[in-house]
Design brief:
Rossmann fold, about 15% strand
């Protein structure tokens, strides 16, 4: 498709800077475009993105994804999902406080809680980009299934996958819960931010 002002601006949503007569189904050259599927270029032109998860607890793997994502977008919203049917280690309010604490070094990171669909939360944040962290092999099938479901629910949202750094590829919140009570602080610090170890130990012994 030839590059032009309209194709560069096209995101699948109305743009107030374009004339009222603008046909969102065609570009300047009269060629059809697919509504709901923003071009790759528009992903990295987006000002904000959303990274969702349970973060129960937040791990160094999560933090690695947050740090890298914060450099890609003007604002990164970390969305802590609330599932009342799932027993969690930390309450939503506690998770928000812990995540806010360990991400305070990045001024463009905002932490919020939400319930319901992740794609709805992304829309509420006026974003069209969802960030997902992926560990080699273990997450691929599940993430692909979720991607396909999100495509059906919200075709205007694109997902950006960030592969976990090698040193964090094995880290998960489930693993932390399994080893926390048997590990000393030095060992735990290999998996979770040091700032949350005290709270994590308190939860595991309560």
């Amino acid at each position: 498709m030839p590059d032009c002002e309209c194709s560069r601006r096209f995101t699948g949503r109305k743009d107030s800077s374009l004339p009222e007569s603008f046909d969102y189904n065609k570009n300047c050259h009269g060629q059809s475009v697919r509504l709901g599927y923003p071009p790759l270029k528009s992903i990295f032109m987006s000002k904000n993105a959303v990274y969702t998860g349970s973060f129960d607890p937040i791990t160094l793997g999560h933090l690695n994804v947050i740090e890298r994502s914060s450099k890609m977008f003007d604002t990164l919203v970390v969305g802590i999902g609330v599932n009342v049917e799932k027993k969690s280690l930390f309450s939503p309010e506690e998770r928000k406080e812990l995540v806010s604490r360990v991400t305070s070094q990045w001024e463009n990171v905002v932490v919020e809680t939400f319930d319901g669909l992740a794609v709805d939360f992304v829309h509420q944040q006026n974003s069209s980009v969802m960030v997902r962290g992926v560990r080699p092999l273990t997450d691929i099938a599940g993430e692909f299934t979720m991607l396909m479901a999100n495509r059906q629910l919200a075709p205007d949202i694109e997902t950006v996958f960030l592969m976990a750094d090698e040193e964090f590829a094995h880290v998960s919140s489930t693993l932390i819960k399994q080893i926390a009570q048997f590990s000393d602080d030095e060992m735990l610090a290999r998996f979770v931010p040091e700032q949350i170890i005290e709270e994590l130990r308190a939860k595991m012994t309560s």
